[in-house]
Design goal:
This protein has one domain (10-255). It contains 9 helices and 16 strands. The chain has 256 residues and is α+β, with helices and mostly antiparallel strands. The protein has helices at residues 58-70, 74-82, 131-135, 145-157, 161-175, 177-185, 225-231, 235-238, 245-255; strands at residues 2-9, 12-22, 24-25, 31-33, 39-42, 45-49, 52-54, 86-89, 93-95, 113-117, 128-130, 190-191, 198-203, 206-213, 218-221, 242-243. The protein has a 5-stranded antiparallel sheet, with helices on one face. 34% of the residues lie in helices and 29% in strands. Helix 4 crosses helix 5 (161-175). Residues 12-136 form the Aerobactin siderophore biosynthesis IucA/IucC N-terminal domain. Residues 167-237 form the Aerobactin siderophore biosynthesis IucA/IucC-like C-terminal domain. It holds the Pfam family IucA_IucC. GO terms for molecular function: acid-amino acid ligase activity.
Length: 256
């Protein structure tokens, strides 16, 4: 899909045709990917998909940039040292049109775009996909891709599918659940890592690297707010999503 440029003239918006490199939609529909681009493009889509309308809001753009900067502090260094197979896909920049503030107090133009770093280039793009695609049943009706992976491993290793499943899941928890809980409990950064926001890279069929993605899915527990502000002064004002214990507990239950 070619990116389109438009401008406002006397006759309104005019199409300037297809320009630039070719991008392709990902499973999130509104995030576009080009194998050789340093960034993925996440646009607004004013359509309800699953539980919400998929439109980017100005605070979400700011939150993504703030968290990207937070991960460049000692917090990010600590995370990478402890969990080298876990990564957060950042949204360090955004683009939009300044249309002023509307009567409803909103300032969105509908053209809000997140520039998400593209870590899936070259070898990193191989055998990587969202967990939801790994677990969902295929259209053909022959089970999930994960089921096929487990059966293939069992046959190759001469073991039962039950034994392979246990080892596979232990490895998955090691590179996903452990760092997610550590990041929240010890450092005060929560992530909504449900299956759509989780990308898993496999190596010879087993979990090898876990990626979290989503500008909208960061939150700060009240108990760690001051610590985060010490690391990056003003981060709470730029990324105002501070939740109390009950709300945090509900989010963790939904995602895990």
């Amino acid at each position: 899909m070619g990116l389109q440029r438009v401008h406002r003239g006397e006759d309104g918006l005019q199409s300037l045709g297809r320009v630039g490199r070719e991008f392709h939609p990902t499973t999130s529909v509104r995030t576009l990917y080009a194998p050789d681009s340093p960034f993925m493009v996440k646009g607004s889509l004013n359509v309800a998909i699953t539980n919400s309308e998929r439109a980017n809001k100005r605070p979400e753009l700011d939150r993504g940039v703030a968290v990207a900067e937070l991960l460049d502090t000692e917090l990010g260094d600590d995370l990478r040292e402890r969990f080298p197979d876990f990564d957060v896909v950042r949204g360090p920049a955004s683009l939009t049109l300044d249309v002023g503030e509307g009567a409803d107090g909103e300032s969105e133009s509908g053209f809000e775009v997140v520039l998400r770093e593209n870590v899936f280039r070259g070898a990193n793009a191989e055998n990587a996909g969202p967990v939801v695609a790994l677990c969902q049943d295929r259209i053909e009706g022959d089970g999930s891709r994960l089921g096929t992976v487990v059966r293939t491993l069992a046959e190759r290793e001469g073991r039962s599918t039950e034994a392979v499943s246990r080892d596979w899941f232990r490895r998955y928890l090691e590179i996903s659940l452990r760092p997610i809980l550590w990041l929240y409990i010890e450092r005060g950064l929560g992530v909504e890592a449900h299956q759509q926001n989780s990308v898993l890279a496999l190596e010879e069929g087993y979990p090898d690297r876990f990626y979290y993605r989503d500008n909208q899915g960061y939150y700060f527990p009240e108990s760690k707010y001051d610590e985060l502000d010490d690391l990056l002064p003003g981060v709470g004002e730029r990324a105002p999503w501070e939740f109390g214990p009950r709300r945090n507990k509900n989010l963790r239950k939904r995602c895990l």
